Amino acid sequence: MNGFFDIYTLLFLVLAVVVFLRLRSVLGRRTGQERPPFDPYSRTSEAPASNDKVVTLPQRQGDTRPASRDAAAARHDWGEFAPAGTPLAKGFDAIHAADRTFDPKGFLQGAGAAYEMIVTAFAEGDRKTLKNLLSPEVYENFERAITDRESRGETMSSSFVGIDKAEIKDAGVSGRDAFVTVRFVSELVTVTRDRDGEIIAGDPKRVDETVDVWTFARDTSSRDPNWRLVETSSAD
């Protein structure tokens, strides 16, 4: 009886090993079509190693020869983002002249990601994240508000529901700095509690609409393509 059991046990073990080797040969094989993990803050090979900026502009790959006149004109057609001849379109043109990689659509995607990160980091008192995303002046204001909140023993939680709308309102170049102003309409659930855990502001069951107007900027003479938040304001 023991010999019978041992023989069948051995057969099943051999079969399991064969199946495992077959699966590994198929599942472990690279085809060259794998996609790299998506990272909205990934840097190009030319970017500095430090992470003191945010909102990466999409980089065009491939042919780096000067574009033809027709191709250049096509890139200056900003479509739905800014009708030709408007102040906003001229602002885009000025940025594009300093940075050929500028793309309003890609910028808005990065700015939206930065907006969510900043709102969440402020609620959590995450100074490290904020310092990497904000200009020194804006960071100082955020840090002061966090310190005041902590000194009163208050805590803040913010659940980010989503961005309903993000629209570029202004853009241009001042000196070496390019700037883009974005109006965000978002939905948040924000609650502030005192040191005893009692709610003193907000409602955990209520979704509030928030409208913010934020300006991002970057030094166009820098090879780092990333942007930082340099100004914030609220809008009705």
TrEMBL record:
Chain positions covered by the region annotation Disordered: 32-74
Keyword terms: Membrane, Transit peptide
Protein localization: Membrane
Biased composition range(s): Basic and acidic residues: 62-74
Domain Tim44-like stretches: 88-234
UniProt KW Aminoacyl-tRNA synthetase keyword: no
UniProt GO cellular component terms: membrane
Keyword Transit peptide belongs to the record: yes
GO MF annotation terms: protein-folding chaperone binding
Stored InterPro entries: NTF2-like_dom_sf (IPR032710), Tim44-like (IPR039544), Tim44-like_dom (IPR007379), UCP031890_Tim44-rel (IPR016985)
Alphabetical GO biological process terms: protein import into mitochondrial matrix
Family as reported in the entry's similarity comment: Belongs to the Tim44 family.
Name recorded for this polypeptide: Transporter
Native source organism of the sequence: Lutibaculum baratangense AMV1
Lineage of origin: Bacteria, Pseudomonadati, Pseudomonadota, Alphaproteobacteria, Hyphomicrobiales
